[in-house]
Amino acid sequence: MILLLIVIGIFTGILAGVFGIGGGTLFTPVLFILFTSLGVEQPVAWTIGTSLFCTFTAASSSSIQQLKQKNMFGREGIKVGLFGAAGVFIGKQISTSAIYTEQIFVTFFACLLILVAWMFYRRGKSEKIVTERTSAIGTKKTAVTGLGGGFVAALAGVGGGVVVVPVLNLIYKINISKAVSVSSLAVLVISLSGWLQFALLSGQVAGATGFTLGFVDFGTGFPLIIGAFIGGFFGVKLGEKMTQDRRQVAFSVLAIIIALIMIYTIL
Fold first, then answer.
1. How far apart are CA 62 and CA 19, in angstroms?
2. Residue spans of beta strands (DSSP E) within 72-213
3. CA 166, CA 189: separation in Å to the nearest integer?
4. Sign of CA dihedral 118, 147, 104, 218
5. In 3D, which of 255, 226, 194 has the Cα closest to residue 61?
6. Rounded to an integer, what distance in angstroms lies between the CA atom of residue 194 and that of residue 205?
7. What is the pTM of this model?
């Protein structure tokens, strides 16, 4: 099983590298399908907690890269992330409750995939537009952005970047480069807070492996992470050979396929 998870992780990393998207968008469906196929009880909570753990490790690499490029907006990224931690706490009350069924989770995530596909397309257009606003982001804006990102993270197992980037860039008109940089650090804080909050939940049922804490299955997460780091290197190289238009179309198709597969698992 470990070897299979590493292979799946490599494939996930390749896709993440090609499309330049956060790991949570891909880790979540992989983990949900895995946990449901193994008959794990409360697969939604296990999926979200473990995916946030995987996303945290991927976000660490991204933040280090931003730091090396001296493109880090630390103060604002941490502020958004801390508000995001509060958003995670709020969202967790819903995602770990009986009302958040597998059907609701899959429907929400499928809609989120469509949003991510649209954002991916919109980002390509945004990069062609020179937006000069790189001034400091006020507390109100960081609060709205962070709370929204954290709330979605707790419901879908993603890092929250799917909310942070479009809110900062499309709504608050923050330069796309700065929005991505702030998001990288914010996602690091949000995903760290997220998996820790799910790990500290007590009274959980058994996971897929024996290496678990709360609703975080490390025995499943670590092999995926190892594979994702390997695959990510090749994915970036492959992505450099594809045009933006081709990547946009390919990701849109991929998002639809993933959504359909997840919907099939609950039929």
1. 14
2. 212-213
3. 18
4. positive
5. 226
6. 19
7. 0.87
Are the beta carbons of 10 and 228 closer than 8 angstroms? yes
Cβ-contact 168, 145 below 8 angstroms: yes
Residue 260's Cβ-count burial label (10 Å; 0-12, 13-18, 19+) is exposed
Question: Of 184, 167, 190, which is closest to residue 85 (Cα–Cα)?
Answer: 190
3-class secondary-structure state, position 212: strand
Query: Which residues have C-beta within 8 Å of that of residue 262, sequence separation ≥ 6?
Result: 29, 32, 33, 106, 109, 110
- With 0-12 / 13-18 / 19 or more C-beta atoms within 10 angstroms meaning exposed / middle / buried, residue 24 is buried
CA-derived radius of gyration, the chain = 17
Degrees to nearest 5, angle at CA 158 with 40 and 52: 60
Q: Per-residue pLDDT tens for 211-262? A: 999 999 999 999 999 998 888 878 878 877 877 777 777 888 888 888 888 8
Contact 159, 91 (CB under 8 A): no
